[in-house]
Amino acid sequence: MNDVNQNSAAAGIDPGGSQEIRNQQEQRVLTPVRQREDWPREAVGNQQLRRIAVLDTETTGLDWIRHKTIEICAAIVNVDANGRIAAIEGMGSGVEDPGHPLPPEIVELTGLTDAMVQGKEILREKLTAFIAGCEGVIAFNSGFDRPFAEALLPSLPLMPWGCAMVDVPWRRLGFEPGPQNYQLMQMGRFNADAHRARDDVLSLIELLDHVCRDGESVIAKVLAAMDGKAWRFEATYAPYHQRELLKDRRYRWRSEGRSGVWHKHVREADFDAELQWYVDTFGEKPTVVELPVNERYRYERSWKPVERKARYLAEVQ
After folding, report:
1. Whole-angstrom Cα distance, residue 145 to residue 233?
2. FRET label pair with 247: which of 7, 28, 174, 273, CA 20 to 30 Å apart?
3. Does residue 19 have a pLDDT over 70?
4. Among positive and negative, which fits the CA dihedral 171, 173, 175, 181?
5. Taking a C-beta distance cutoff of 8 angstroms, is the pair 96, 117 a contact?
6. Which residues pair with 313 in a beta bridge?
7. What percentage of the chain exceeds 90 in pLDDT?
8. Rounded distance, CA 142 to CA 228, Å?
9. pTM
10. Residue 126 vs residue 304, higher pLDDT
11. CATH class name, domain 31-227
12. pLDDT tens digit string along 212-224?
């Protein structure tokens, strides 16, 4: 073996080199997300900027009606014309006592304890004014965070909301969709202190500033979806026995009294394909309701299904 190695070295060949290269190709080095002090506090130069609030909540459960927000953080970021985050202008956060012991699973998930929240109260007016000065809000899962934030801050005006989880075509960009930290790791980043609101906001800012393989940042894609049109497709007359097709297509059930409707939030880029699928599947168009920019990702009880008209045999023959 020594002779082989000596001969290989003499010939300029590294017998272990190809394996080392393969090992390097199969490994990815994860870099910590940037902390608050690593970001500029103001953008350089006289450039056009968008002021966006990046928000996260920690709660005692999943239902905004029954459960409480125990921590919230919002950061105001400045987004330049190239879709990059030029600065974190400021951050505001707070914790609040829910009035009962924290569930053990929430303590394990967030690291918050009863002692850390006891007697604490979030400064609602101050935080409301902080967020309301922005042109929009982005959360990783806005369908979860928006109802909790609006319940906590009832004076917060109706604002446009974007959602990093669903407003970005992750698979088309080479990512496997998943939780925020999983997305970060696919980008080569990690946050060891995940699941405190401030840490999750910094993680989300890192994710939003990532430039995808098409040359556009994640936040640019979220803002494009926020600025674009969106609709709610209501499967008003879809047969009950075909509900599994709707589930597979990510339609959700909205109950209304003894009845309800399957529905889906459809973005501008997906409108034609979704409409064609629906017509091909059910032989007719869905009920299409345009969603105002400031009504997206609100809690489901904020809207009512379009009234279903009685259909007679003569109409369907």
Report:
1. 23
2. 174
3. no
4. negative
5. yes
6. none
7. 79
8. 17
9. 0.86
10. 126
11. alpha beta
12. 999 999 999 999 9
Structure tokens at 216: 């556009």
Tokens (6 digits) for 138: 């982005």
Q: In what order do the strands lie in the sheet with 136-139?
A: 85-95, 69-79, 50-59, 136-139, 161-163
Confidence of residue 196 (pLDDT cuts 50, 70, 90): very high
Alpha-carbon span 34 to 29, nearest angstrom: 15
Instruction: Tokens 């809000």: give the residue.
Output: 137
Phi, psi of 295 (to 5 degrees): -110, 0
What would the two tokens of residue 314 be? 């003569």
Encoded amino acid at 95, one letter:
V
pLDDT per residue as tens digits for the range 34-69:
999 999 999 988 889 999 999 999 999 999 999 999
C-alpha span between 230 and 298 (Å, rounded): 14
With 80 as the cut, is the pLDDT of residue 258 above it?
no
Of the spans 11-15, 22-26, 189-193, 201-205, which averages the highest pLDDT?
201-205
Q: For residue 69, give the amino acid letter.
A: T
93 CB contacts (<8 Å, ≥6 apart)?
Answer: 71, 72, 73, 74, 197, 198, 201
Q: What is d(CA 243, CA 174) in angstroms, rounded to the nearest whole number?
A: 30
What is the spatial distance between Cα 209 and Cα 86, in angstroms, rounded to a whole number?
Answer: 9
